Amino acid sequence: MADHAGDLRRPAAERCLADRRRKRRQRHGAGDRAGAYSAYTLFARQLRVPAGAAQWLSPRIGGLTGLVTGATGVFVIPALPYLQALGLSRDDLVQALGLSFTASTVVLAVGLGAHGAFAGQTQGLSLAAPAPALVGMGAGQKLRSRISPTAFRRVFLAFLLVLGAQMVVRSLL
Fold first, then answer.
1. Which residue has the higher pLDDT, 60 or 102?
2. Element (H, E) at 129
């Protein structure tokens, strides 16, 4: 009888392992893209959206960002490179990124909630998570007002490069 019970659990365990492998590949891919973009932008010339292209390109980038977010849970690519390529001022860029990330976070939270991801212990952690984010936002706002736009861009991209590398390393562990 014990062998029979093991056989019943095996497909579920295999599905769980396959799901973990898929998530690792997705995290690795998102980290690769974030790292490659930030490295390119740090060490090469800045990408630019041609005049007049934003009107037809913006909805497409938004849709693509939604697809990437749905597949990986990461909403940085391609929204961030696109918003930077628009040539917005530092404050406008931060505001646009804030709006984009807030909308993506809300939609992601609704999707996770619909699939029961906020049950038990995760519910308390989910409610506590905004606190460090708000502290980081306050610190970033003070830093942003004290450094040049070029230095801000470099610091921002360096952090994005570190984030991408961390995602790749985590996917390999």
1. 60
2. none
Checking phi first, is residue 47 left (phi over 0); if not, alpha (psi -120 to 50) or beta?
A: beta
* CA 4 to mean position of chain CA atoms: 43
Task: Using pLDDT thresholds of 50, 70 and 90, give the confidence band for residue 55.
Answer: very high
Residues sharing a CB contact under 8 Å with residue 67, sequence separation 6 or more, in sequence order: none
- Residue 18, both tokens: 């396959």
Say if residue 59's pLDDT is above 90: yes
Q: Are 42 and 158 in contact (CB under 8 A)?
A: yes
Who contacts 170 (Cβ-Cβ below 8 Å, separation ≥6)? 27, 31
Q: What is the 3-state secondary structure (H, E, C) of 83-102?
A: HHHCCCCHHHHHHHHHHHHH
Q: What are phi and psi of 73, to 5 degrees?
A: 80, 5
Tokens of 130: 């905004």
CA distance linking residue 131 with residue 10, whole number of Å: 40
Cα separation of 121 and 97, whole Å?
30
Cβ neighbours of residue 145 closer than 8 Å, sequence gap 6 or more:
none
As given in the structure block, the two tokens for residue 31 are: 């980290």
Looking at every residue in the chain, the average pLDDT score rounds to: 79
Please count the other Cβ atoms lying within 10 Å of the Cβ belonging to residue 111: 13
